[in-house]
Design a protein that fits this description.
Number of domains: 1
Helix content: under 10%
Keywords: Signal
InterPro entries: DUF6268
Number of strands: 15
Pfam families: DUF6268
Strand content: over 45%
Low-confidence stretches: 1-26, 304-312
Protein name: DUF6268 domain-containing protein
Structural class: mainly beta
Largest sheet: 14 strands, antiparallel, barrel
Radius of gyration: 20 Å
Mean pLDDT: 81
Length: 312
């Protein structure tokens, strides 16, 4: 049964360092692997004696397909897998403390269209049908979800780009249609990269440009179909909504053979974990703010004439 709070589920893009709309990077990411760890933290609801921690990891492969010889129209085919592990220790009854682990998965195919309208304007459209579920039972229509976004980008000059658009997304763990914005300012010494409301990045470059450092923040989340009993909850849970805002320092190295390594740490704030039972009631299991650590590995060879317009 679907609820008014989660009318449909959306693709959850497991990511810490690279957030939604990562297609706007200068180097095209053919392969990307990333993970993040959030230690267990006390549940904010004071009436509950328990702690919750998270571990995320994911992998994606993307293939560009130019439609025209002048590359004014390019399709991007991206296949992604994401895994979210929720680790809970709580005292749901007088019977004693219970430890439980739950795994949620997302498997998606993302089709992106990147169209040059003229020398200054580009249109970016993405559509991603996805399975998002605990995968504990036979797949059904409740496991299928959709995400879409569209953005119009203007290249003001070689250093500055901006854009506006719309996204149908679950950035805060609920399905929403939201406005989006894009700002990119790139010079020899720094790069400012904003994709509102999901990504905030200010990175400084070294002379060789092989090492960058700075501050990054990002908001992301998702909704998953839940099919089996959760030990630490007495109700039958239908859906799980999850989101987090992370902020902290980041460093990145460009190695040989177009391999990049990125490390980030800091605080995960504004986190949300909501369980929706079969009657539509929300059970809040949001943990307090906590530190986190993330690592990413990507293969990003240069792709001539396709430096912009490259993501739950």
């Amino acid at each position: 049964m679907r609820t008014v709070h989660f009318t449909s589920k959306c693709f959850y893009l497991i990511s810490l360092l690279l957030f939604s709309f990562n297609m706007y990077a200068q180097d095209f990411e053919f392969i990307k692997i990333q993970s993040a760890y959030y230690p267990k933290q006390t549940i904010e609801e004071t009436a509950i004696d328990g702690e919750i921690g998270f571990f995320e990891w994911g992998v994606q492969v993307a293939i560009p397909q130019p439609i025209k010889r002048n590359r004014k129209t390019v399709l991007i085919h991206r296949i992604e897998y994401g895994n979210l592990r929720v680790i809970t220790e709580a005292n749901p009854t007088l019977g004693g403390r219970v430890k439980a682990e739950r795994y949620y998965h997302s498997i998606s195919y993302n089709l992106g269209l990147f169209q040059s309208l003229n020398p200054n304007w580009r249109l970016v459209v993405n559509f991603a049908p996805t399975l998002a579920s605990d995968l504990e039972e036979t797949l059904s229509g409740d496991d299928l979800l959709y995400q879409a976004n569209a953005l119009l980008i203007n290249t003001k000059n070689e250093n500055f780009k901006y854009g506006l658009g719309l996204a149908y997304t679950t950035l805060i763990g609920r399905q929403l249609l939201i406005p989006t914005g894009f700002i990119k300012y790139d010079t020899r010494k720094l790069e400012l990269d904003l994709v509102l409301p999901s990504k905030y990045s200010l990175m400084f470059k070294t002379h060789s440009n092989l090492f960058t450092y700075g501050l990054r923040a990002g908001l992301n989340g998702g909704v998953f179909n839940n099919t089996t009993e959760i030990q630490t909850v007495s109700s039958s849970i239908d859906e799980v909504g999850y989101s987090r805002l992370v902020v902290g320092p980041a460093i990145s190295w460009k190695l040989k053979n177009a391999i990049n390594i990125t490390l980030q740490g800091g605080m995960a704030v504004g986190r949300r974990l909501e369980l929706v039972d079969i009657d539509g009631e929300i059970i809040d299991r949001t943990p307090q703010a906590a530190p986190y650590f993330a690592v990413g590995l990507s293969f990003t060879p240069k792709y001539k004439n396709f430096e912009e317009g490259q993501n739950n």
